[in-house]
Amino acid sequence: MELLLLAQVQDDMCMFRPASPPAESIRDLSILVLAITGLIFLIVEAVLVYCIIRFRRGAAGSEPPQFYGSKPIEIAWTAAPALIVFLLVLVTARTLWEVNVQPPEPREGDGALFVTVIGHQWWWEYQYEYYNGQKLGFATSNELHVPVDDAQLPRPVYLKLKSADVCHSFWVPKLAGKTDLIPGRTNHIWFQSKEPGVYLGQCAEYCGTQHAKMLIRVVAEPNMDFEKWLANEQRPAVEDPAAQKGKAALLAQSCINCHTIRFPDSPAKGTFGPDLTHLMSRTSLASGILRNTPQTLHDWVADPQKHKPGCLMPAFSVNEHDRALMVGYLSTLR
Amino acid sequence: MATVVRELELMPTAEPAHARSILSGWLTTVDHKQIGILYVVMAVCFLIIGGCEALVIRCQLFWPHSQLVAPDAFNGLFTMHGTTMVFFVGMPILIGIGNYLVPLMIGARDMAFPRLNALGFWATLFGGMLVYFSFATGGAPALGWFAYAPLTEHTFARGPATDLWALGLVVSGIGTTTAGINFIATILGMRAPGMTLRKIPFFTWTILWTAVQIVIAMPPLTAILVMILLDRNLGAHFFDVQNGGSALLWQHLFWFFGHPEVYILILPVFGMISEIIPVFSRKVLFGYEFMAAATAAIAFISLGVWAHHMFAVGLSRPEGLFFAVTSLLVSIPTGIKFFNWLATMYGGRISFASPMLFACGFLSMFLIGGLTGIMLAVVPFNFQLTDSYFVVGHFHWVLIGGTLFGTFAGIHYWYPKVTGRMLSERLARWQFCLLYIGFILTFGPMHIAGILGMPRRIYTYEAGLGWEIWNQLSTIGAIIQAPSFAIFAYNLIASLWKGKPAGDNPWDAWTLEWATTSPPPSYNFETIPTVHSRRPLWDLKHPDDPDWQYE
Predict the structure, then answer these.
(1) Helix axes of B114-133 and B91-105: crossing angle, nearest 10 degrees
(2) Does residue B65 lie within any of the structural domains?
(3) pTM of the model
(4) Phi then psi for A131, rounded to 5 degrees?
(5) Which of residues 175-234 of A touch B (CB under 8 A)?
(6) Which of A294, B122, B241, B271 has the most CB atoms at less than 10 Å from its CB?
């Protein structure tokens, strides 16, 4: 499963290879605008080069004839750009109305996924609200799983964007343009992935020290796989009898002040860091900068500052024995 | 007036110790020409500092996962680079050139308020020093030059760097505002007899509108900087969302200043280009009235376009469309200017001395910056491009391809007037070629990196996304550009001694500053000339066919 996903990771974030209707509308508009500006560029630079070559000073002579201006000419080259501007405004309005739509209310059988995205310094929290009209109500982080359109039903994804601290911006170029997450405001964005795969993006509004390492992975999967993933995420954390010592060690540490692990009567209810209930269902750690393996997890827990200097998770001086137990427990959280 | 003139003449020789008198002369001067030179020298020093910061940024981004500088050091570098280039290079160099030239061009003996003028310079310099003092307090502010709230709140920026940044900009903002007021008073009140507003040199006209924009745009900036200082130090909550403040408010108010700021940085350059192209094409400026109206139109429209920096903040569709329309409208008067410059060149006898070389660099490059600006005004396209490296490429194309090339054109044009010596044409050509090639190579690839999804202000990036090659080309371009600035600085200094004597009017130009000696005496003109047209020296040379017949 993991290998399959890695094989499908798109190795580009190019807005000109879209995989979602809003990104496609923007691509089409962009090509039109590039063609218009490209044409203006060619014409004006050609006139400039012509003037430079044709009128460069030859032998010394008298002053050339003086022209003070011409009203008809001025009116002509005021009107021409005005017409182009008018055209650009029309196509801008058309695409803007296509791309920028308010989300509908969730209802039974709509095939739509509703997720609230909360930007944190420097990771993403995803609160799953509704899918296909069913209430969900769990949180995960950094990797956003979404369904892919299928023959029966388009499966749009509506994201509600909020921030827990400073301004961020959600940008997955192949799916949609970017929209900011601003404290005190709620913004919306939508997309609809047509091909399964992992779409990459990252925070696009400077948000402090580790702005560069606030990566986004959107995992788009066929509905069957997505529903399987949903069912797993909704379950409480796995209880592996072999890892009970590690569980006890972890719950005794201050990890639980910032992280949540969902199981009955869990003391781990922190919301300052990512929800760890199904940590191992994610392919990456620390907002997409490390591959999630027990070894990297161990290194990360030992010293987050080494991998992401300035990040808000400190290195706790847990002894090697306890740390191995804790990581052992975390590795069972599929 | 006569007694004032005599005092000014006596001043430099009053002190017995010569070196000391020169120094105290510069420190206490209220002469617009000396203040103008101080502004330009200060700006060139800050240009070198800001340029070095940019070089470190480019070196860090040469490889993915580079460890040359730590994340916060990098974030501090781009904050200081942007702040420096906008507030302590761009504005002072243009205000300085305006300070030197405006009284000479309109036939005045000084600016309207000479002491206020000196205050303006010293406030700008001390503001810059305050901002840089943050390095001594444990690191530069790491905010980005537009310092979006709530990143500037005490919760997220603990050190004193942010306070010094805000305080420094308040102080330099006072300096800038006084300069704006002074320009308006000077241009409206101190013109030579016969020089109606319709006959002022075009550079003076653009400075007038720049000054109007300064007076309108600086107060909101000062206000929000004070609000930040209150939030941080006295427990106010202007931008603190948890306590009922608004983070978005900062963005609106900042860009209400920030977008006119962009035109503050380009209108005087339009003015310089409009002086240089006619002189080196040997033709009168084509369509002066339309050019003048276009300038005023840009100044007005620029007050209503600020939210095009904020298309991604979740504006409603009508709001987005409104700001797209106003932003696209700017391209009409800008287009008029462009076509008129080309029409001025058309049919002329163009000489490619260094000022015209840089002016052609300006024309060929500023066009591209304008066209990428159109792309950014198209809201849906903007959703993809904003805050990506495309934007970094775009505004550097405007500020270097536009402002810097134009300013270099102006400095090469007026240096003989200021110093009495010509700059070396050979060095100027080397400077131009290295800058032209290096500039295209640095900022061209940034557009592509942005289209490939690279956000701005990241201290490092992941490998394998196709970004490496474009970043490496950018860095190589920056390394090619660097020596052109060294050549420029060397040329400025060495030509003071080695340059050919310039004479009063080396370019055979037509505006009043060329009627006096080079350098001009402290009183500028022995007798204030009477003016009949926009090109008084043309009239003098062609009494049979003077300009005022056609204006």
Answers:
(1) 170
(2) yes
(3) 0.94
(4) -135, 130
(5) 176-180, 182-185, 187-188, 200-213, 215
(6) B271
- CA A117-A122-A128 angle, 5° bins: 20
The distance of B381 to chain A (nearest Cα, Å) reads 6
- The residue out of A218, A234, A250 marking a domain boundary is A234
Contact A85 B329 (CB under 8 A): yes
Kindly determine whether residue B342 and residue A188, on different chains, have CB atoms separated by under 8 Å: no
A216, A234, A252 - which closes a domain: A234
Residue A214 sits in the same domain as residue A282:
no
Selection from B522, B520, B419 nearest residue B10 by Cα = B522
In a domain? residue A10? no
- Flag whether A250 is in a domain: yes
* Structural domain total, chain A: 2
Mean of the pLDDT values across residues B198-222? Answer: 96
CB contact under 8 A, A165 and B351: no
The region that residue B339 occupies, defined by phi over 0 for left and psi between -120 and 50 for alpha, beta otherwise, is: alpha
B301-317 per-residue burial string, b: 16 or more CB within 10 A, e: under 16? bbbbbbbbbbbbbbbee
> What domain range is B130 assigned to?
26-549
Check A179 against B332: CB less than 8 A apart.
no
Whether A169 and A124 map to the same domain: the answer is yes
- Do residue A182 and residue B156 have CB atoms under 8 angstroms apart? no
Say if A11 falls within a structural domain. Answer: no
Q: What is the CATH number of the domain that holds A146?
A: 2.60.40.420
Note the pLDDT of residue A22: 96
By residue count, chain B amounts to 551
Looking at residue A8, its pLDDT comes to 63
Here the CATH number for the domain that contains residue B301 is 1.20.210.10
Q: Are residues A132 and A171 in the same domain?
A: yes
Q: What does DSSP say about strands A143-147 and A215-221: parallel, antiparallel, or unpaired?
A: parallel
**Does residue A87 belong to any structural domain of this protein?**
no
Min Cα separation B188/chain A (Å): 25
Work out the number of other CB atoms within 10 angstroms of the CB of residue A330. 22
- Quick check: B458 and A73 CB within 8 A? no
B15 within domain boundaries: no
Task: List the domain range (segments joined by +) for residue A292.
Answer: 241-330
Provide, as residue numbers in chain B, all residues whose Cβ is less than 8 Å from the Cβ of A178.
312, 383-384, 386-387
The per-residue pLDDT for range A194-208, each reduced to its tens digit, is 899 999 999 999 999
Task: Sort strands A134-141 and A123-131 into parallel, antiparallel or unpaired.
Answer: antiparallel
Size of interface A-B (CB pairs under 8 A): 272
Say whether B286 and A68 touch across the interface (CB within 8 A). yes
Give pLDDT, residue A7. Answer: 45
Do A193 and A273 fall within a single domain?
Answer: no
* Residue B19 included in any domain: no
**Residues 12-41, chain B, touching A (beta carbon < 8 A):** none
- Look at residues B268, B238, B314 and name the one whose alpha carbon lies nearest to residue B40: B268
Sign of CA dihedral A128, A131, A133, A138: negative
Same domain, A226 and A293: no
pLDDT surpasses 70 at B15 = no
A35, closest residue in chain B (CA to CA): B375
Whether A187 contacts B314, CB under 8 Å: yes
- Say whether residue A65 is in contact with chain B using an 8 A CB cutoff: yes
Beta bridge partners, A159, equal A115, A189
The distance between the two most distant Cα atoms of chain B, rounded to a whole number of Å, is 75
CB contact under 8 A, A64 and B348: yes
Residue type present at position B466? G
Query: Residue B158 domain-assigned?
Result: yes
Burial A28-51 (b: 16+ CB within 10 A, else e): ebbeebeebbeebeeebeebbeeb
Using the Cβ of A309 and the Cβ atoms of chain B, whether some distance falls under 8 Å is answered with: yes
Number of domains in chain B: 1
Closest CA to B107 of B227, B229, B204: B204
Mean pLDDT in residue range B463-481: 95
